[in-house]
Amino acid sequence: MKVPREPSDKADALGPILGTNQSGMRALNERLVLTMIRQNGALAKSEIARMTGLTPQTVSVIIRALEQDGLLLKGDPQRGRVGQPSVPIRLNPEGAYVLGLLIDRRSADMVLTDFKGAIQARRRITFTAPDFEDVLRFARHAVTELRALVPPAGQARVAGLGIAMPFRVWDWATTPTAMQAWRDRDFRADLALASDLPVFLQNDASAACGAELVFGTGTQAQDFLYFYVGHFIGGGLVLNGGLFDGPTGNAAALGSLSVLDRNGRPRQLIELASLVVLERAATGQGGANTSMWDKAEGWDISQATQEDWVKEAASGIAQAVQAAVAVTDMRLVKIDGWMPADLRAQLVARVRDCLQQGEFKGVEPPVVQAGTMGPDARVIGAASQPLLARFMSGFSV
User: Fold this and answer.
1) What does the pLDDT read at residue 23?
2) By CB atoms within 10 Å of each CB, which of 14, 153, 158, 295 scores lowest?
């Protein structure tokens, strides 16, 4: 399957972005204002002017236009110590709707999200392997069903469809011909033919990293390394406040890094820290495994099996972190995944322990944190692609 970078009319700069007061730049400035509010929450006009470098008059004109477009809402006046009360400006959840499709190796999810990234509805299928035609048929039906749930007044506000999926998915086929359709055909193009929406495509782990960057809770760092543990483990890289995806969209393919297993043999990280490894261990011991792909909680896997997987997965991730830090000087690492919260907490804690025992001569060891988006990071990241392309500045999709 071809994976070209999708065209976009958005700004593609990284790092802090300032607006311009020159005429003819209304669209850029509007996206800048929307970006500031999305990243910081409700803001007064004076705060927006200070953060963007725009004049108060320009900000007032932009806010008025975005309110008329239904993208922003005014909050209740907040009284300070002196002067006029400030009025917080916030995003209107009903300002736009987007669709996101996640294609994984054992399941596919389609979600409808509002303008703030909250999931409104979902469709899901599971399988033993992703058949191209079956997944395409599911996606087409899910688009129709989910769009029908949008209120009539919001139908014109459906901004697009984003797809998140592993690139080169055929590399892990059990037989040479099992995934041939994914190699030969363009899933994005085939789905776009059945829809009047703009359709975007991104690597699934990069999409998860982008969701953490844009929608993650708390103050977001400008630079961090990101691991997402799914059927196979993948990664993402944030530099200077923007998602770095490389010339082919496959940057930070952390699962391909070479690490040592418990016997000292070189293996790819994907062979040690992926959930398929845990599934195989549970199956080999007679445990159920279908629950792993149906939901991210309540797995029927023994504690001993989980702990054994965590031990080797954490060791591999820690080795990958050491190698990445030596190249990028990264000070923060985030780990998320399709797994129960307590299992993720165990994995994060174990990675920290392994790094404390590691060698960091000449470099600074990073802080390791759990991601804030959880199991839905990839599908929310998929849905965010059309939203970011149309309404935000400084992010790549």
Assistant:
1) 43
2) 153
- Tell me the whole-structure pTM to 2 decimals: 0.85
Q: What does the alpha-carbon distance between residue 388 and residue 245 come to, in Å, rounded to a whole number?
A: 15
Ranges under pLDDT 50 in the chain: 1-19, 21-24, 397
3-state secondary structure (DSSP) of residue 81: coil
Strand order in the sheet with 233-239: 242-243, 233-239, 224-229, 332-337, 367-370
Are 58 and 43 contacting, i.e. CB atoms less than 8 angstroms apart?
Answer: no
The residues near 329 (Cβ < 8 Å, ≥ 6 apart) are 363, 364
Query: How far is the C-alpha of 230 from the C-alpha of 32, rounded, in Å?
Result: 33
Beta carbons of 342 and 168 less than 8 angstroms apart: no
In the prediction, which pLDDT does 10 show?
Answer: 31
In Å, how far are 6, 100, 106, 342 from 114, measured between CA atoms?
22, 11, 26, 29
Q: How far apart are CA 361 and CA 63, in angstroms?
A: 51
Query: Can you list the alpha helix ranges (DSSP code H) found in 150-274?
Result: 180-184, 187-193, 204-215
Q: What are 231-286's pLDDT values in tens digits?
A: 999 999 999 888 888 888 788 999 999 999 999 999 999 999 999 999 999 987 66
List domains and CATH numbers for the chain.
26-93 (1.10.10.10), 96-209+378-391 (3.30.420.40), 219-371 (3.30.420.40)
pLDDT of residue 237: 94
Query: Is residue 164 within 8 Å of residue 382, measured between CB atoms?
Result: yes
Specify the pLDDT at position 14: 27
What pLDDT, on the 0 to 100 scale, is given for residue 8? 35
Question: In angstroms, what CA-CA distances link 291 with 107, 232, 309?
Answer: 12, 17, 17
Strand partners, 53: none
Contact (Cβ atoms closer than 8 angstroms) between residue 68 and residue 75: no
Q: How many CA atoms lie within 13 A of 216 on its CB side?
A: 25
